[in-house]
User: Which sequence fits this backbone?
């Protein structure tokens, strides 16, 4: 039975870690007024009929604090990349000069910053809900083991362990949100 409990606790820990990792990747996509190549992460472009990530058909670099440059490896990819950026609705308009595409990040207004903070908190709440759902599932599995003959003391200890793991990851989510909020609100 203890192997089953260890498996449940490990699986819970791994799943919660993935929820926090997902939050980190989502927070990177929320811009804070600075150019960041990771803003384009996950953005796909039509490469000869195949959806391909922009970073696999071009070189994405930061020219300065507010400018991203995208240099495709093939000139005929300029238009598909430009269309993909427009379709992604990133809040920036691509500037195509025939050789490279430049993305100029406009300075954020106070209202826009608050919108981004709300969006970050929304993503954080999704992560918290995911973590709580993982906790609920783990506790249900532990209770099933108790019905199969696991002692009540061991069950309570396992539930306490799962709760401690949950608290740890909820705290991690809160820290990520605090850092992102400071980053967004700093002018």
Assistant:
């Amino acid at each position: 039975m203890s192997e089953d409990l260890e498996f449940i606790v490990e699986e819970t820990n791994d799943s919660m870690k993935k929820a926090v990792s997902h939050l980190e990747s989502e927070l990177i996509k929320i811009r804070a007024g600075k150019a960041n190549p990771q803003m384009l992460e996950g953005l796909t472009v039509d490469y000869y009929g195949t959806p391909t990530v922009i970073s696999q058909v071009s070189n994405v670099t930061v020219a300065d604090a507010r400018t991203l440059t995208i240099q495709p490896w093939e000139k005929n990819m300029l238009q598909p990349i430009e269309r993909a950026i427009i379709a992604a609705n990133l809040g920036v308009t691509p500037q195509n000069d025939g050789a490279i595409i430049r993305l100029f990040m406009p300075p954020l207004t106070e209202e826009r910053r608050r919108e981004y903070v709300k969006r970050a908190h929304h993503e954080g709440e999704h992560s918290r809900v995911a973590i709580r759902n993982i906790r609920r599932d783990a506790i249900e599995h532990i209770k099933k083991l108790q019905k199969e003959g696991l002692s009540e003391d061991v069950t309570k200890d396992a539930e306490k362990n799962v709760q401690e793991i949950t608290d740890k990851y909820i705290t991690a989510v809160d820290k990520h949100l605090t850092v992102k909020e400071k980053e967004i609100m700093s002018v």
Observations:
- The longest helix spans residues 110-147.
